[in-house]
Amino acid sequence: MTVSAALTALADKFGEQLRTSQSERDQHGGSETHFNPIAPDAVFYPNSTADVAAAVTICQKYKCPVIPYGTGTSLEGHTLAILGGVSFDFSHMNKVLAVNCEDFDVVVQPGLTRRALNAELRATGLFFPVDPGANASVGGMAATRASGTTTVRYGNMAENVLALEVVLADGRIIRTGSRARKSSTGYDLTKLMVGSEGTLGVITELTLRLHGRPEATAAAICAFDDVADAVDAVIAGIQSGVPTARIELVDSEATRAFNLYGNTDMPEKPHVLLEFHGSHTAVDEQARLFRKIAKDFGASNFEFATKPEDRDALWTLRHNAYYATLALRKGATAVVTDICVPISKLAQAIDETRKDIANSDIPGPILGHVGDGNFHAILLIDPDKPTEKDTALKLGHRMAQRALRLGGTISGEHGIGVGKLDLMADEHDQAWQVMGAIKLALDPHNIMNPGKVVRLN
């Protein structure tokens, strides 16, 4: 059984839907961050669930790895073809199949991006809230259990995926969940698939929860003299019940990157960025309450934005933080890592991480979705200096151990991929072996995105 035999069978059945040019393969073998490129042996462009099922059946027959591919924006090497195989690119399966306004849900194909989805929904008064920053595909977002800037208000993908259609490793097509808002009928296979990173099956259709567009939206930004004060203000705001839709923190180094990249003139101090959703009266009240709390912790330069263009400019800057940070060091790449801790431990986790980075020989701005205890470090390294990458990986390892010590998790939203595989036993112990058993039960030949999430040998 060989990959070449699988490629021959796939080419016979699908013709031009299978591509083997080096350029096409290379486009699907890269990573947003520090991982070395590993290209697949071929790229397959399915047009339907039937295509996926037929292709997976062929790959199963020849024990050829299958690597689902959305837009390639993941950060932990999720789409690297580490054992070769075929990359299933879902860019041709990118349609909205049904919008059910009365029930606040939508049925979509996996290649649809979150921005394209919200553009389709604009006339309905509804929107899909999960916003990881990148214009990721919704299939990829489900596979990695993505979250992002709005999680504090609307939850992550696990809370916003109602049902799935999935092709299993043997080619069977199953449906998990339903459009009902709850069920007590056995194992929750939807949540099993959400976050499985393509290791258990290939997602071919999603039913997503929608939310009503708020009557009013306002954004705010304020500066603090110290990260600890900023975090304490956020915690106080949450504990006071201020219903913010987004709460983001950027440290002084990240602020400097924003100024250089976006031609802004923010004080080079830690900043908190917020967004409020609701009625006009509610939004005004929320902003007033948080401003009062923030001032108690020394906030300054509190700015309020209600015009869409001003809000968009603020969040575009935040979403471009990775690229802005790269510009701080010419020619740099980055080890990007995240952890998530209980909100009461957030200030401690960030403070210890900042000190750890300061004691190293590489820069590492910190930013994150602090409203739910999640933050990121972008550790800038010279790709020609292997010792710097080693330093960054050690810093990331210590961040993960810190999260576990404080009752948290090694990743709040980036996922595992290959980058955090060695840390899974530390967090899950025997439960990681149970994950491996589930993997073997559904994928006995280990063809579904092998080498990610679990280790089978």
Low-confidence stretches: none
Please give the CATH architecture of the largest domain.
2-Layer Sandwich
Distance between the termini: 20 Å
Shape: globular
**CATH topology call of the largest domain:** Uridine Diphospho-n-acetylenolpyruvylglucosamine Reductase, domain 3
> Helix fraction?
25-40%
Q: Kindly provide the name of the CATH class of the largest domain.
A: Alpha Beta
Number of helices: 17
Overall SS class = alpha+beta
How can the largest sheet be summarized? 7 strands, antiparallel
Order of strands, main sheet, comes to 15-12-14-13-17-18-16
| Beta strand count | 18
Computed CA radius of gyration, to the nearest angstrom: 22 Å
- Share in β-strands: 15-25%
State the domain count.
4
Mean pLDDT: 94
Offer a quick outline of the entry:
Helix content is 37%, strand content 21%. The protein has 457 residues and is α+β, with helices and mostly antiparallel strands.
Report on this structure:
This protein is α+β, with helices and mostly antiparallel strands. Helix content is 37%, strand content 21%. It has four domains: 3-91, Uridine Diphospho-n-acetylenolpyruvylglucosamine Reductase, domain 2 (2-Layer Sandwich), CATH 3.30.43; 96-212, Uridine Diphospho-n-acetylenolpyruvylglucosamine Reductase, domain 3; 216-322, Alpha-Beta Plaits (2-Layer Sandwich), CATH 3.30.70; 324-419, Alpha-Beta Plaits, CATH 3.30.70.2740. It has helices spanning 3-14, 22-27, 49-61, 114-121, 138-143, 151-154, 157-160, 189-193, 227-239, 252-262, 280-296, 308-319, 321-326, 346-358, 386-405, 424-428, 430-442; strands spanning 18-19, 42-44, 66-69, 86-89, 96-100, 105-108, 126-127, 161-167, 173-177, 202-209, 211-212, 216-223, 244-250, 271-278, 300-305, 333-340, 366-368, 374-381. Strand 5 (96-100) and strand 6 (105-108) form a beta hairpin.
